[in-house]
Amino acid sequence: KHRTTLKKKILPVKFEAAAPAAGTLVETAVGKKAGEILTSAGPYALAYLRLEYQDEALLADGVALSTNLKV
Fold first, then answer.
1. What is residue 71's predicted lDDT score, i.e. its pLDDT?
2. 3-state secondary structure of 52
3. How many Å apart are CA 44 and CA 12, to the nearest integer?
4. pLDDT number for residue 3
5. What is the rounded CA–CA span in Å between residue 28 and residue 49?
6. Range 22-48 burial, b when 16+ CB lie within 10 A, else e
7. Tens digits of pLDDT across the chain (71 residues)
8. Distance (Å, rounded) from C-alpha 25 to C-alpha 34?
9. Residue spans of alpha helices (H) in 10-58
C-alpha cells in the first residue's frame, strides 16, 4: 500500500534559546504531537518530525523552533 509515502523525516532545527534535551516532544501550537528531539548542541538540534507539521509554529518544552535552515 502506500510504502513510498514519506510522513516523517529527520530535520535540522534552530531554537530561539538553548535546545532541550534529546527525547523532548515537539508539539504544534495547538498541542498536537509533531515529533521529538533526537540530539542537540547549543540552539541547534536534529528532530524527527512529521512533515505535515514542518511549516507550522512548533514548540519543544515551551521554546519555539524553526525548521527553515539552510544547510
1. 57
2. helix
3. 7
4. 73
5. 11
6. eebebbeeeeeebbebeebeeeebbbe
7. 667 788 999 999 999 999 999 999 999 999 999 999 999 999 999 999 999 998 899 999 999 999 887 65
8. 8
9. none
